[in-house]
Design brief:
about 45% helix; about 10% strand
């Protein structure tokens, strides 16, 4: 009788088992922070592909995973080649017989692998779940990834929380009521900081500033926004372009197809041959903030009020009809500017002592824009506050303080909706000039 696993008259699920195992491993590897995983990447000068490609964005020291490619094979130990495998000296140990056959399959994959610049590791499993020696080492290396650095902190935080919860029940009075728990997030701060420094050190200045923008409140809130109304919805193109920007992929072409210059990260935001939405993004952001401020009871908001003895106007004027003590908002005028951190002036900004911190660089440039607005503001009897955003959603220090004062007087729903709409408005303006 034929063994069921090799009978040619029976249906097999070779593709299903291969694809299933491949996706399971890919998902597990992709969950490692700082790691990018691609399934079946196109081979170098060939149409043949390995199953899994792993890139460590933070470096192998940070993630514990080196850049590599893996190719999977699942075989039956009941097939003809496996049954024909022999050991010297009439050795019939089944474990060594199986390992010899699986090693021969792995050697065959190594000899016939697609051309690639990355290290190659064959992964060979039997249908019963047995691995050859090299596959066991690969799995052991995955088990040791730096994600396991979080496990002791997670265990300590969980143990402390459990002890605090159970102690009053099991041993009343053993813990004071004021016990302050240290959360897992707090315990892992040193690891998070190390990962961030390693990532920033591996990026270009433009990419580093893009990462800082993406981590700002306005730069990230669009990701978690539920599109329950038309103003919160994105098109397929906008989502695709936004994710490419957020993952620092940028445009595909090395040189801009519009102006012919080098297509550095952020170039689409400043290319003079592309259409921008400067007026639309400015007007959109102005109206979003004006509507949110106008919802505060006892407040009157005017957009672009006529200046005193001048035709120049600030964007928003706020009057507190009941007084600042009642509404929490003082009479003031605000003027908005949205700038790109990829423009010439931003890229020319330097810090003393050869400091290259992207967050401080971006803030210095945004502060210089705010200072310029203060020096050249229209004449007015009201206090003036510049509001400066980057296209990616980053604010300078004074703008952050303005938003903090607004947060204290607006309802939670109004303030959060304003942030979501602003984030989407800036994002839509940013991707309008992007080419996939």
């Amino acid at each position: 009788m034929h063994p069921p696993k090799v009978c040619l008259q029976r249906r097999f699920r070779r593709v299903a088992r291969h694809e299933g195992a491949k996706h399971i491993m890919g998902q597990a590897l992709a969950s490692t922070p700082g790691t990018r995983v691609r399934l079946e990447p196109l081979g170098h000068q060939t149409s043949r592909r390995n199953d899994i490609q792993v890139f460590s964005l933070l470096g192998s020291q940070a993630t514990g995973l080196a850049n590599a490619e893996y190719d999977l094979t699942v075989v039956s130990l009941a097939n003809k080649d496996a049954r024909a495998t022999k050991l010297p000296n009439q050795d019939s140990d089944p474990s060594r017989l199986v390992n010899k056959y699986l090693d021969s399959v792995a050697d065959h994959k190594v000899r016939h692998r697609p051309t690639s610049n990355l290290p190659f590791h064959p992964i060979v499993l039997s249908l019963g779940g047995m691995m050859n020696g090299s596959t066991t080492k690969v799995f052991a290396s995955w088990k040791r990834t730096r994600q396991t650095r979080y496990a002791p902190h997670a265990y300590a935080a969980a143990s402390e929380a459990a002890d605090t919860t159970l102690a009053p029940i099991l041993t009343p009075g053993s813990l004071p009521d004021s016990t302050q728990l240290i959360t897992q997030h707090q315990r892992c701060q040193e690891i998070f900081a190390g990962n961030k420094e390693a990532l920033l050190g591996s990026l270009t200045p433009e990419q580093a500033k893009a990462m800082v923008k993406a981590s700002s409140k306005l730069g990230r809130v669009w990701v978690t926004t539920i599109p329950f109304q038309p103003s919160l919805r994105l098109t397929d193109f906008e989502v695709t372009a936004a994710l490419q920007l957020r993952t620092l992929a940028g445009e595909r072409e090395a040189h801009c197809t519009n102006c012919g210059e080098a297509n550095f990260f952020g170039h689409p935001e400043v290319c003079l041959q592309r259409k921008f939405r400067r007026v639309a993004r400015h007007e959109g952001a102005k109206h979003i903030m004006g509507q949110a401020l106008a919802s505060t009871p006892g407040t009157r908001v005017r957009l672009e009020p006529l200046g005193h003895q001048t035709s120049r106007r600030n964007d928003i004027q706020v009057f507190s009809l009941l007084g600042s003590q009642a509404t929490g908002l003082a009479n003031a005028e605000y003027d908005l500017t949205v700038v790109s951190l990829a423009n010439k002036d931003a890229r020319a900004t330097k810090l003393p002592n050869q400091d290259t911190d992207p967050s401080r660089l971006a803030n210095k440039y945004l502060d210089s824009v705010a200072d310029h607005k203060v020096r050249h503001r229209p004449t007015s009897n009201l206090p003036f506050h510049p509001i400066v955003f980057s296209l990616g959603g980053m604010m300078n220090g004074s703008t952050t303080k303005v938003f903090a004062s607004w947060k204290r007087v607006m309802t939670r729903g109004t303030y959060n909706l304003m942030l979501k709409r602003l984030s989407l408005c800036l994002l839509q303006a940013r991707v309008r000039s992007f080419e996939l």
